Amino acid sequence: MTDTQQLLKGYSDFHQRYFRDEPKLYERLHRDGQSPKVLVVACSDSRADPALITGAQPGDIFVVRNVANIVPCFTSKVHSVGSALEYGVKHLKVQHILVLGHSACGGIKALLHDEVKDSDCIDGWIAHAAPAKDRALKKCPIDSAQECCERENIILSIENLLSYPWVNDRVAAGTLQVHGWHFNIADGILYQYNPVTGKFE
Length: 201
Ligand SMILES: [Zn+2]
What we know:
The chain is an alpha/beta fold and 201 residues long. The chain has two domains: 1-33, no CATH class; 34-200, Beta-carbonic Anhydrase, Chain A. The chain has helices at residues 4-21, 24-32, 50-54, 79-91, 106-113, 122-126, 130-139, 146-161, 165-173, and strands at 38-43, 61-66, 96-102, 177-183, 190-194, 199-200. It is globular and about 55 Å long.
């Protein structure tokens, strides 16, 4: 179990590596600002850290994380996700948006089984993913729908990305690509959504 003392040790290692041993990266990032090419929408889950999974270095990925890697549709004007998307697309001009979901997602489990009806915040948030639940339950019985729902939710988030006009315009112009990945925390395998086949491969 990592407590804050262990995190401070981790910080000490990080500082040694990036500010003493190899200071050029942060010197450049400080001088020139960030220019990540990829925006990642990932789950808050502690087991599915996009920077760790991808080996991204500081400055490489612009990340927004939330319960169940949800992208609400544009009309909902949800400011945390929407503002990150707007900044990433309009100002940083990222070339890729990646929705990263994962297996055993607690948010998706709660959505599937209506586990958080009395919550203050969670149920209203995961309700944005309700269409993914509907689609998954058309394909499989609820007891085996977890992975299917996680993947439908990634596809739904991609669809909702395109409801943001400045995302849609850049995708149509060919200057922005959207991707869906599903990370299996049991075996570490990463599956990529293929929009041609409609499958994760
Ligand atoms: Zn999750």
